[in-house]
Write a structure and sequence with these properties.
The structure is a single chain. This protein is mainly α and 238 residues long. It is built from 9 helices and no strands. It has helices spanning 5-32, 34-42, 52-72, 79-102, 106-132, 137-165, 171-192, 197-204, 214-229. Helix 1 (5-32) runs parallel beside helix 6 (137-165), helix 1 (5-32) crosses helix 8 (197-204) and helix 2 (34-42) crosses helix 7 (171-192). The protein is flat.
C-alpha cells in the first residue's frame, strides 16, 4: 500500500473525513456550553473566563485534526515539510504573542494568538498533503465543509437552548438540556447521515453498530410483524 499513491490518497481522505466529523462537533459541544461548565465546575466568580473556553476548544480540535493527519502521512511523507510547517507555526505564535503583549490584550489575546498559529499549521498541512495527494483534494475539502456545517448546526441548537433556559432554570439543568440536544443531533447524524463521507467511512470500517443503520432498524421492526403473520395456533393454544 505504501507504493500505491491512489490508495494512500483515499486512506488520507477517509482519515480526514472521519476525524473532522467526530472531533470538531464534539469540541463544539464543549465550547458552546462553556459558560455553564465554568459556572458549574468553578463557580460564578469565574464566569469571565468562560469566553476562553470556545477558543481553547477550537485550538484543541484543530490541533487534534492536524495530529491525526500528520500521523496518517508519516509512512510516506518526508520530514522536511513537517519541520518547515512547525517552524512557521512557531514564528506565527511568537509574533502573535508579542503583539498581544504589546497591545496588553491579556489572556484572551494570548489564546487568540495560539489559535491563529494552530490554524496556520492546519492550512499548511492541508496545502502540503494536497501536493502529495491531489486526487483527494475534493474529498478532504468536502469533509471540512460537512464538519463545519454540522458544527454550526450543533452550536446554533445549543445557543437556542441556552437562550430559552438561562435565568429560568438551574445551571445544571441548562447544561443537561444542551448536551441532550447535542446528543439527539449527533444520533440523528449517525442514523440518517448516509450522505456524509465520514459516516460512510465509519460504516464501511465497521466502527458503528449495525443497530444504528436504517436498514437494520427496518429489519428489526419488520421481523416481529412477519413472525406474527406466519403464526399458527398450536394444540396447546387451542
Amino acid at each position: 500500500m505504501q507504493h500505491d499513491n491512489s490508495r494512500l490518497g483515499a486512506s488520507h481522505a477517509d482519515c480526514a473525513s472521519l476525524t473532522t466529523l467526530i472531533l470538531v462537533p464534539l469540541r463544539a459541544v464543549i465550547g458552546a456550553s462553556g459558560k455553564q461548565l465554568v459556572t458549574l465546575l468553578l463557580g460564578g466568580q469565574w464566569g469571565g473566563s468562560a469566553a476562553l473556553v470556545p477558543i481553547l476548544d477550537l485550538v484543541s480540535a484543530v490541533g487534534l485534526v492536524a495530529q491525526f493527519r500528520a500521523r496518517s502521512s508519516r509512512p510516506w511523507a518526508r520530514w522536511g515539510g513537517k519541520v518547515v510547517i512547525h517552524l512557521v507555526q512557531l514564528i506565527v505564535l511568537i509574533a502573535g504573542t508579542s503583539v498581544a503583549l504589546l497591545l496588553r490584550c491579556g489572556v484572551h489575546g494570548l489564546m487568540v494568538a495560539v489559535l491563529v498559529s494552530c490554524l496556520v499549521k492546519q492550512v499548511l498541512f492541508y496545502a502540503w498533503l494536497d501536493r502529495l495527494f491531489p486526487a483527494s483534494r475534493r474529498l478532504v475539502a468536502q469533509a471540512y465543509a460537512q464538519a463545519a456545517a454540522l458544527t454550526a448546526l450543533i452550536w446554533l441548537a445549543l445557543w437556542a437552548v441556552q437562550q430559552a433556559l438561562e435565568g429560568r432554570c438551574p445551571v445544571a439543568l441548562v447544561l443537561a438540556a444542551q448536551w441532550s440536544a447535542a446528543g439527539v443531533l449527533m444520533l440523528g447524524c449517525v442514523r440518517y447521515g448516509a450522505g456524509l463521507h465520514g459516516m460512510r467511512v465509519a460504516r464501511e470500517r465497521g466502527l458503528l453498530p449495525g443497530m444504528l443503520s436504517r436498514m437494520e432498524l427496518k429489519r428489526r421492526v419488520d421481523k416481529p410483524v412477519s413472525s406474527a403473520a406466519h403464526w399458527r395456533p398450536t394444540h396447546s393454544d387451542q
